[in-house]
Amino acid sequence: MNLIDPRTGAVRRTLAPGRATEVSAAVAAARAARPGWSALTPRERHRRLAALADLIEQHASAYADAECAGTGKPVAEAAGELAEVADLFRFYGGAVRAGTAPAAGDYLAGHQSWVRWEPVGVVAAVVPWNYPLLMAGWRCAPALAAGNTVVLKPAETTPDTALLLAAHAEQALGPGVLTALPGDRDTGRLLVGSGCDLIAFTGSPAAGAEIAARAGLTPVSLELGGNSPVLVLSDAPADTWQQLAAACTYNAGQSCAVPARVIVLDEAYDDAVAALAAAMAERHAGRDFGPLNNPDQAARYDRIVAASAAKTVRTAPGRTDGLWRPATVLADLPADDPAVVEEVFGPLLTVQRAGSLDEAVTLAESVPQALAASVWTTDLTTGLALTDRLSAGEVWLNCHLAQSAELPHSGRRSSGAGTDLSTLALREYQRPKTVTARLV
Hints:
By secondary structure, the chain is α/β, with parallel strands linked by helices. The chain is 40% helix and 22% strand. It folds into two domains: 12-96 and 119-224, Aldehyde Dehydrogenase, Chain A, domain 1; 228-407, Aldehyde Dehydrogenase, Chain A, domain 2 (3-Layer(aba) Sandwich), CATH 3.40.309.10.
């Protein structure tokens, strides 16, 4: 398969996709490494994961170059994300040392019981192209810390940093503990059917549904995208529009949690459209953010924009050639518009009007996805009340995309099932075993 630099359209390298032989070999290597890795004490796993974090930081420029070549994102974005990945391996290495059983004691007369949390075994981690290294960190760090071995299947267009991570993991963790398996969708299908003990997938709802169907009784952890509503009240902070424009165009809008649907009350609607368009006009494709990742995504983005019935379109300056798309605002559009209902995954914001806060919440909840949302108001009482009414797994007040390893990130409805980040993510990769002993 030819790997394309999305910034230029040029072929940057060629790789053969993994097929049955490569998939079997990767899973076999993970199976062979699992007993030794899971038998290590949490302290020793922590030490080795910290050594992997050190290697990531020591080779930061190589990771950044590989990530930029695969995704097209600016160097500053790639550098910030690889720092987060190094932090994740350190965080989970330490977190697993503090794990405690949920129950232990005399629950039956004459018996003592306790619960052990054990690794599930071999994890197949299938990650997307929008954050190749960061999503690998989100999936691999807790899985490895919990004592599992991992076969990492990167997206077809962005295997570069996964291969680099696997090479450093062999050095820091040992052979077979983390294996990278580059390939296409057929490679992923083979991996899902290879007998791994858990499938951890981040990607589109359609692909997630297929994986869940193919997995059968194999446990799955799914993060399947978002379509984040943004409720902006008339007393929102002065920098709201600049904050939203920056968040929307980060990674060219190719983020599951990116702000997508701005909802404003009637009396502030016209001013809001003008202010948002002005803020987006300051975000230039080619200067402030990169291109879309691949031709399929560009075609999908173009289809959604072309099908929109928006009466107001505001397009910012910037590159429009190849895979580059400008920051765009669509306003005066119906609630069932494709740009509202579908996850656009690009540097685009829609604006909808609501007659009341109740209607604003109804509009926010009207799409299948429920991953993230934000509320913007200086009235914290009203703002906090609105965060309670939104069903997304992560809700921000007067900010967006503010995340930390300590805080869980999870989807509801069609956005998936399972938890990334925080110590709760460790439970995705463990299973409980109750041990009860009769006292004789």
